[in-house]
Amino acid sequence: MFPDLVNGLTIEERLAHAQLMVAVASVDGELVQEELIMIESIMGKSMLHPEMRVDVRNTLSHPLEVDKCMDILSNAGQKLALRDAVLVSACDGEYDKKEIRIIKKIAKIAEVDTETLSQIYQWVEEYWSVYDKSTKFLS
Fold first, then answer.
1. How does residue 133 score in pLDDT terms, banded at 50, 70 and 90?
2. What is the pLDDT of residues 6-63, one digit of tens each?
3. Among the listed residues 38, 9, 41, the one whose alpha carbon sits nearest the alpha carbon of residue 26
4. pLDDT of 3 over the 90 cut
5. Could you identify which of 24, 34, 42, 60 might form a hypothetical disulfide with 85, taking C-beta atoms 3.0 to 4.6 angstroms apart as the criterion?
C-alpha cells in the first residue's frame, strides 16, 4: 500500500476509521476473507498500535455503530472513511444492498454529494482494474 491521507488523522480518528470499516464489512451479515484482509491492510497503513488493532479485531463480532464512529472523525476523516468504505465493500467482488445503504449514510453524514460519490465508485473500479492487471502478468 502507498502512504495515505489517513495518516494525517489523529490516532483516535484512525481507530474510529478502522472500526467503521468493520461495521461496513459486517453489515451484510458475513465477513469474508477479502474484507478481513482489507481491514488488516487499512490498520497497517494507518499505523495503528498492535493493541489498538486487537481492539478493532474484537469488534468483528459486535461492530460499533456508524454514527458513533463518524462523530469521532473530522470532515476530512469522514470523507476518507467514505472512500475506504467503498473499497472494503468492493473487495469481495460485489456491493450488497446493505453495504450500499451504509455507504449512502456515510456520504450523507460526510456531506458528500451524489456526483462525488459516483466518482469514488468509479475510482474504486479503476483501482481494482489496475490491481487485477498485476495478477495477469505475475501468473
1. confident
2. 989 999 999 999 999 999 999 998 889 999 999 999 999 999 999 999 999 999 989 9
3. 38
4. no
5. 24
Taking CA atoms, 97 is separated from 4, 51, 89, 100, 137, in Å, by: 28, 33, 10, 5, 33
Report the number of distinct structural domains present in the chain. 1
Selection from 67, 68, 71, 17 nearest residue 47 by Cα: 17
pTM above 0.85, yes or no: yes
CB 86 within 8 A of CB 119: no
Q: Which of 101, 80, 95 is nearest to 16 (CA)?
A: 80
CATH code for the domain in which residue 90 is found? 1.10.3680.10
